[in-house]
Amino acid sequence: MVDKKGIQLLKDLCESFGPAGFEQETAKIVKKYVEPYTDKILTDKLGSVIFKHRGETDRPRLLIAGHIDEVGFVVSGIHEKTGFLTFNPLGGWWDQVLLTQRVTVRTKKGDIPGIIAAKPPHLLPEEEQKKVLEKSKMFIDIGATNKTEAEELGVRIGDPIVPFSPFSVIGNGKIAMGKAFDDRIGAFIAMEVVRRLKEMKVRHPNTVFGSATVQEEVGLRGATTVAHVVDPDVAIILEVDIAGDVPGIKAHEAPTKMGKGPSILTFDASMIPNQPLKEFVIKTAEEIRVPYQLSQVARGSTDAGRVHISRAGCPSIVIGVPTRHIHSHVGLLSLVDTENAIKLTLELVKRLNNAIVESFTAL
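Request: output the structure for the sequence above.
Response:
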């Protein structure tokens, strides 16, 4: 199970403020935490953090990455007479999860609370009450009564917004609840792997480049620049997966379940994984008796979509933690799955030597 130090790190990561394009607070947490466990810390010019742990050889270079941006919003306007804020999404949001949710608006004068609201249903015609309300008809109420008051609080067009959602551990200590699991959990796993490499003095026949990438939710942008900086020979992208153990979901739509082990992604909209690498990961999981689930996400994509086509190409795989209610204010995931994802990734680091990596692309 993830230890107390790890739980505190996960809490700090998930409660930090970091929508796509505004990840600096989260990136600083990553940098401070991994510094004692790494040989060198690098950054790209978008703000991603790269932390190097040299093993017995310089190559192969193994990239293990999770993105630190969360889905959020950005202020698009301030209503003149009411002070209500209009907003645009940063990342994908389903309109139905937004109403009455609390948010935090970061301004030049500090953070201010708000709530996503709309015209009360009591004032809507009966036919309109039956329709899904679109986010374009919603606004954020920060308690101002006009535009001047909102501006005096420091609000400007372009200010970032995130859900307000404190982190907690429930379910007899086995379930984490909070925001931004997509994909702070991936960055957390990468950080924990590097920490254990150092603390346990693990020998590994490669050089590991952990990474906390930025702007994944708006087009996999940080992955593009990180792959250019690192020039990896093989990549493990660490992500959430869509847990299908929710009423109404068919098994073929989302095959993984929370608590049944990390997932190995066999296909998504942006990448078909390198097949020998996929089989190597499956074989490794079976040999060390880590439970795993095979998964597909037909309409989603991950940082692997950019990494696997960087430069001349890079054999890549996605290991995920099944998570309920992603892209909403509150998600749930299993800390047991998380620990098993750490164990599997750590074991892969121990095994990925130059000969094995070259075999992934041999003809």
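The chain has a mean pLDDT of 96.
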